[in-house]
Structure formats: C-alpha cells, structure tokens
C-alpha cells in the first residue's frame, strides 16, 4: 500500500487491441451463487434476474440495497442499445478478492473481537459461492506490510547477524491467523487463487539492515530466491498452494513501513537469473508476476523484465500485476497488445476515506480493469477495524470489504461495506474460467460482459449519471430493458433455471455511517 495521498486518476477505457473506450460495464455470469446453468438461447419472455446495489449518500458508502434481488425482467423481440456479443471473446477470468493482511487476519481470528460463530459467518459471506459473494482471489503479503501490527519477515535476525542458509526461516507468524483463514477460504471456495507479494526482504539481506527501504544486496539474490521457495513450500505443506508471486510490492515505495528499493535492471536480473530458476529447480508451478505497481511505473520497473523473451517464455512467468492508483488504465491494453500471450492481473486498489465516492470508484475500477484485459480485480485489506487499523505506518485511512469492530461500543460486530457489494457484483456472478465477451460501451450505463464456462451469462452495469437511465440490453436478436436508478450498480443474469440471489442472510451494518441494523439492512427500501 502506498501513501494515502495517492489518488486514482481519471482514465479512459480501452477495448480490444488498445482502442480506448469512454465507458464500460457489462458482466456475464452464471448465477450469483454459481449454480450450474443450462446454455439456452433466450426466448421471448425468458426471465432475466436482476441484482441491485444502491447508496444514498454523496460518498457512495451508505448501502440501502446490497445485491438485492429485484423483480425479474424478460427478453422480448427487438434490438438493444447495448449489444452483447458472445462470438467475440477476450480474456479469461481468474478471480476477485482482497488480502488477508496481518491486520485483517488478526482482527478476524485471534484478536478476540469475533466469536467463532461470528468469524465463520463472516468467512461464509465472503467466500462461500452459495451463501456469500464467492471471493476467489487472495493476495497476501509475504511478511509484514503497512497493514500489520508490526514489521516482520519469515527470517528475522538480530541486528548485525545473517542467515544465508535460511536455517531460521519459519512461517510461524502466519500459522496463527493468515494461513488458517486462507485455508478456510479455499475450503469454502475451492476455486480460490492465492498470490504472495513481499514488502521487504529480511533486513539482514539489505544494505541498511532495516525493513524500511534499503536495497537488497546482490550477494543475497540467491538466498532471497530460496526464501521464496521456502515460503511456497511451507504454505503448500500447510494446505495452501500459492498460484502467483510478485518479486516486490510497489518497488521503492514507500518509507515508514516495510519496503525495499529496486531498479528495473535489478528486478530483471533477479527474476531471470535467480527466482525463475529456483522455482523450476524446486518443482514449483507458481508463476511470477512483474511490476505489482501502478500503470505509470511500467517503463521504470517492468519493461526490462517483460521485454526479455527468455523471461516471457519461462513456464513460471505469469505476466503483469498492476495497481490502479496512478497513471492510465489504457497502459494495460498497450502492454497486452505488445505481448498478447502474457497474463494481465489487477492486484491492488484500496478503498479509503480519501475516495470521493466509493461506489463510483469501485465500479469504474471493475469496468476499466476488465475492459483493459484484466483477469482479476483485487482490493487491498480484506478487513480493518473501525479506526482503519491496526496499521504499521503507511495507510491509516484504508477501508476493507468488511469492518470488524474491536474495542468500541459495537465490538464483535461486522459491517459489510460498499466494497463488499461492488466486489460481489463480479465474484457472485462470474466464475473462474469465464471469458469476457463483447458489449457496446455506453457513457451513461457503463458495462462489461462475461460468459461462464457453462455458457451462462450476466451483465454488470453502472449508472454513471445523476438521473434514472434505461439499460437497454440486446443479445441474440432480442432485448430487455431496466430502469437503473442514478448511481446504482446492477448485475443481470440469464441462461438457465437458477439466475442467482443475494447472500442468504443480509449483513447487519454497512459503510461509514453507523446506524441501527434495521436502518442499514440492504432490504430497507428507503
């Protein structure tokens, strides 16, 4: 995570082959709960299920309707303004989710804030495809980050001492909270992908003997590659295979918490000469992602790595990891068009109190990223407390998909923020292996479309205006319409007998505003 002064910049939406679009958001997905749906062509009168999220405050945080199932609409003869064309397919979907930071995992597990039943309920609503929103991508720090109680790695040594043989390596820290919750998430949703990202190498490997900034010394490159190997082996032994790693979270950013200096040549050399060979020699299938930072940092920190054909051709190289805080999202399409065979992952964009309108920001991100070849949408910390912590420097104003109250007058309660619902518009309805399909860009009703492996479809849409807009959706020679409230998010699903539904039990609290549970229920039609 970077300093909270960083902002998302206005960005264009790029389409296939890098043509920048001006709006987008249509998602095709099976059911909200991933039931198997028949691949049926629409017939006149066929029902289309509708799931709606609305907020009633200028900050887009106070949820009134959260993925609330509406009356179905029906296909009828005619052409729609937004045409969905499943004959044109783009990237496959890998997953959406957030991070079990030390902060999130501790709050949910061993802090004492939640009872076991409250924790299990929260985990179910987060990860279960049937009773929750089916999160299926977890990006965990390898060691400490800014959203942690302390700075740590998996091989810390007293100042002045080294451990080049890594004989002191241990993931004991993660055995308390991070690993068991990640394992439980994978049990709730076996499709879940796991990614690891380091904020810092052990201090003794660095030229300043500190977790804060400093350069990794080249004499420890081989040892650091083995550090990755030991992490991956330990997690696998603990029941959690790790699918992806990045070499460094946000290279060179930022002072005041665990972080590390790199340059592009160092990253390229370490990736090619040390990390990729170490993974292969260990028989690990984990794939390495380059950059793990903003769009405007590609030339400085990733171009040399990705430009090497030997790296791109390595079976353990997975592609690009992007953050969405600075630059233009169209860079994703630019690099994809240059190297169409490498993966495109959006691996971090936190919500926070600095965001002017969180629902608006989230829906733009969901659309922008996936319209620009992104195969994942990953937020930052899964959970924070009511004060945005605990944190170890860095971001004290970040928000999560849930807020775990700890030590205040609502201690033990969980709020499901607007970010829970915006993420759910994707993860409840689009399963891993789905492909984005073509849909007409519309500046008023942004959209992006997907087709699931079973052929079922969904349309995610966002009304990016201050007035009601009619979403007019055409597919296969027919269309349906729906009046979308101002600033509302919707997912439309069709193509089978079960088109999905909202979480089985409505969460009790939402967003920044604290109010009685009934007033904040997503089923309260204010």
Key words describing this protein structure:
526 residues; alpha/beta; TIM Barrel; ten-stranded mixed sheet; eight-stranded parallel sheet; disordered C terminus
Please, could you describe this protein's structure?
- The chain has 526 residues and is an alpha/beta fold.
- It has two domains: 13-91 and 434-520, Immunoglobulin-like (Sandwich), CATH 2.60.40; 94-406, TIM Barrel.
- It is 23% helix and 26% strand.
- The protein contains 13 helices and 25 strands.
- The strands form five sheets. Strands 4-3-25-22-21-20-6-23-24-5 form a ten-stranded mixed beta sheet.
- Strand 9, helix 5 (221-237) and strand 10 (244-246) form a beta-alpha-beta unit.
- The protein is globular.
Largest sheet: 10 strands, mixed
- What is the fourth-level CATH superfamily of the largest domain? Glycosidases
Total helical elements: 13
Biggest sheet, spatial arrangement of strands:
4-3-25-22-21-20-6-23-24-5
- The CATH topology annotation of the largest domain reads as TIM Barrel
Average per-residue pLDDT, rounded, comes to 88
Any idea what the CATH architecture of the largest domain is? Alpha-Beta Barrel
Tell me the count of domains: 2
Helix content: 10-25%
Rounded to the nearest angstrom, the distance between the terminal CA atoms is: 36 Å
Shape: globular
User: How many DSSP E strands?
Assistant: 25
What integer value in Å does the Rg equal? 22 Å
Structural class: alpha/beta
The CATH class assignment of the largest domain is: Alpha Beta
Low-confidence stretches: 3-40, 497-526
Percentage of residues in strands:
25-35%
């Amino acid at each position: 995570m970077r300093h909270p002064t960083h902002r998302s910049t206005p960005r264009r939406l790029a389409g296939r082959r890098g043509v920048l679009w001006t709006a987008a958001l249509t998602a095709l997905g099976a059911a909200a709960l991933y039931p198997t749906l028949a691949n049926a062509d629409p017939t006149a009168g066929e029902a289309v299920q509708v799931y709606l999220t609305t907020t009633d405050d200028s900050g887009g945080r106070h949820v009134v309707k959260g993925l609330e199932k509406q009356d179905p609409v029906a296909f009828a003869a005619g052409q729609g303004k937004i045409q969905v064309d499943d004959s044109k397919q783009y990237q496959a979907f890998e997953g959406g989710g957030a991070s079990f930071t030390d902060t999130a995992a501790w709050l949910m597990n061993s802090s004492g804030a939640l009872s076991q039943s409250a924790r299990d309920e929260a985990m179910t609503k987060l990860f279960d495809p049937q009773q929750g929103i089916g999160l299926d991508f977890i990006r965990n720090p390898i060691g400490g980050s800014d959203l942690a109680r302390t700075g740590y790695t998996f091989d810390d040594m007293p100042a002045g001492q080294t451990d080049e043989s890594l004989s002191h390596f241990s993931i004991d820290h993660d055995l308390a909270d991070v690993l068991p919750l990640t394992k439980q998430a994978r049990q709730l949703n076996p499709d879940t992908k796991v990614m690891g990202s380091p904020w810092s190498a052990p201090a003794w490997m660095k030229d300043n003997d500190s977790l804060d900034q400093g350069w990794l010394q080249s004499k420890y490159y081989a040892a650091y590659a083995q550090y990755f190997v030991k992490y991956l082996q330990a997690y696998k032994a603990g029941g959690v295979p790790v699918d992806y790693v990045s070499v460094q979270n946000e290279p060179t950013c930022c002072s005041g918490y665990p972080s590390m200096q790199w340059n592009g040549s160092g990253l390229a050399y370490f990736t090619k000469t040390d990390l990729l060979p170490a993974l292969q020699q260990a028989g690990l299938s984990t794939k390495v992602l380059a950059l793990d930072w903003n769009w405007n940092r590609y030339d400085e920190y990733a171009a040399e790595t990705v430009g090497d054909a030997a790296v791109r051709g390595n079976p353990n190289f997975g592609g690009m990891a992007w953050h969405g805080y600075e630059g233009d999202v169209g860079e994703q399409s630019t690099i994809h068009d240059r190297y169409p065979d490498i993966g495109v992952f959006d691996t971090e964009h936190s919500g926070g109190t600095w965001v002017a309108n969180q629902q608006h920001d989230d829906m733009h991100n969901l659309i922008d990223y996936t319209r620009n070849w992104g195969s994942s949408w990953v937020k930052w910390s899964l959970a924070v407390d009511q004060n945005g912590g605990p944190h170890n420097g860095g971001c004290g104003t970040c928000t999560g998909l849930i807020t775990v109250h700890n030590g205040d007058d609502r201690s033990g309660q969980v709020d499901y923020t607007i970010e829970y619902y915006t993420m759910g518009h994707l993860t409840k309805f689009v399963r891993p292996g789905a492909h984005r399909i073509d849909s007409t860009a519309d500046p008023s009703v942004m959209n992006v479309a997907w087709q699931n492996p079973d052929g079922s479809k969904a349309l995610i849409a966002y009304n990016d205006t201050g007035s009601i807009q009619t979403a007019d959706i055409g597919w296969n020679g027919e269309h349906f319409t729906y009046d979308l409230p101002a600033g509302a998010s919707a997912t439309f699903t069709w193509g089978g007998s079960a088109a999905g539904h909202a979480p089985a039990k409505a969460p009790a609290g939402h967003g920044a505003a604290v109010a009685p549970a009934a007033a904040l229920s997503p089923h309260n039609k204010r």
